[in-house]
Amino acid sequence: MSHNSLPNTVNQAKAKVIGELLAPVAPFDQKSGRETWTVAFAPDGSYFAWSQGHRIVRLVPWSKCMTNFSSVRKDERLNSARPRSLSRQGSEGSLVPGEPREHTIDCGDVVWGLAFGSSVPEKQSRCVNIEWHRFKFGQDQLLLATGLNNGRIKIWDAYTGKLLLNLMDHTDIVRDLTFAPDGSLVLVSASRDKTLRVWDLKDDGNMMKVLRGHQNWVYCSTFSPDSSVLCSVGAGKAVLLWNMDKYTLIRKLEGHHNDVVSCEFSPDGALLATASYDTRVIVWDPHTGTILLEMGHLFPPPSPIFAGGANDRWVRSVAFCHDGRHIASITDDRLVRFWRIDEKSPQAIGALTNGLCCAFSTDGSILAAGSRDGSVHFWACPRSVASLQHLCRMGLRRVLTTQQVYTLPIPCCMQDYLAYRSL
Fold it and tell me: Dmax over Cα atoms in the chain, in whole Å?
């Protein structure tokens, strides 16, 4: 039987397009080098950043994006016009003093990874001699880290666009960056040199640790919400979990049949989603290493041999919505899919040519997806009212491991629900 896209498309809603950001195209510009390898939202929702290609990173106030997208939709209703992109002409001169400013940053090399870091909530550095540091990051500081093709990491002030630090230790492309969400300004970089490196930006960017365990390229890494665990994924089917208090390997998760290229924890830390070139997104219990759900992008499911080869359903990116119930995936079949964690078929789909990466906005209402031509497209996340049971489950799972759930003096069915075994 031939492999096709998932069935039941009749029941799948069409994802609602919100707007797009288009990269400027110069005369005789070639497509190579224009890729948007990464997109990122600031933790406080103030900025959106994306790599435009050709060494350029663009920072745009997110509120301005939403205002422009709203005006576009209003014009469409009035004039039935074609959707247009956010206009960036003359933007610098029309700002109100004190408002976030747009910035265009030339990073000096191709940008593969982006991450925002904030010292809110405030957390002390692990370094003792903090008073001797060049930089004293205050609570109003917002940093942007960029991972480059030459192995360097550059740290920028997001409010001014000024270069603050230049971190040099990787020997190959820095593919991904992630900040600890606890405000410590601890940064982890994932590289094609097969290592992860841990940096303390409150200690002037001092490299604290090198994590070795991958046998091939490292594609992506992500912190658990409490910053205690790091997941890293890479070539050779690798999914690794690290204890970030001791910098030790906890376990390797076995289940993918091809390179694993993207990962993200659920907001309560009870679930972990990983995306692979094997045509699947797997949802794991990171506490036990158990596979809870497989989101397949081919029907019928491919054999491990087919999934391990060059197929046209490579999953490029996965993102966990902040409501804890929705997951988005970007694939090579020119589709973006929105999934519910309790369903095996997509809830909504949208068209996206040559998609590479995706991320949800801070409030979880919008998904941003970057593509090979340097542009970014935005969709509204499918919305529904969360049940009280789910909200209670998320609240409990923020503080309880799976093992602790099964020690609670409650019925087994309730234990399974809290452990997401009912998926």
Answer: 68
Residues in Cβ contact with 279 at an 8 Å cutoff, skipping those fewer than 6 apart: 296, 297, 298, 302, 307, 311, 313, 314, 315, 331
Q: Would you say 421 and 292 are in contact if contact means Cβ atoms under 8 Å apart?
A: yes
- When pLDDT is averaged across residues 10-22 and rounded to a whole number, the result is 83
Q: Which of 151, 195, 199 is nearest to 173 (CA)?
A: 151
Which value, to the nearest 10 degrees, does the dihedral of the CA atoms of residues 292, 295, 300, 306 take? -90
Enter the DSSP assignment of 158: T
Contact 155, 167 (CB under 8 A): yes
Q: How confident is the model at residue 1 (pLDDT cuts 50, 70, 90)?
A: very low
| Dist CA 377 CA 351 (whole Å) | 10
φ, ψ (nearest 5 deg) of residue 263: -155, 150
Q: Which residues pair with 165 in a beta bridge?
A: 155
The residues pairing with 173 across neighbouring beta strands, listed in sequence order, are none
Using the structure block, give the residue that is written with the tokens 């076995």: 254
Report which of residues 79 and 148 the model is more confident about: 148
Rg (CA), the chain: 21
Mean pLDDT estimate for the chain: 86
Q: Which residue has the tokens 């790091």?
A: 230
CB-based contact 146:153 (threshold 8 Å): yes
Mean pLDDT of 117-137: 63
Instruction: Look at residue 84 in the predicted model and tell me its pLDDT.
Output: 44
pLDDT in tens, 345-365: 899 999 999 999 999 999 999
Q: Are 197 and 165 in contact (CB under 8 A)?
A: no
Share of the chain above pLDDT 70, in %: 83
Could you say which DSSP state residue 299 is in? B
Per DSSP, the three-state class of 163 is strand
Torsion of CA 114, 199, 155, 163, to 10 degrees: -170
Q: How far apart are CA 353 and CA 330, in angstroms?
A: 10
Pairing type for strands 13-14 and 348-351 reads parallel
CA distances in angstroms from 7 to 69, 342, 344, listed in the order given: 33, 17, 11
CA–CA gap between residue 75 and residue 180 (Å, rounded): 41
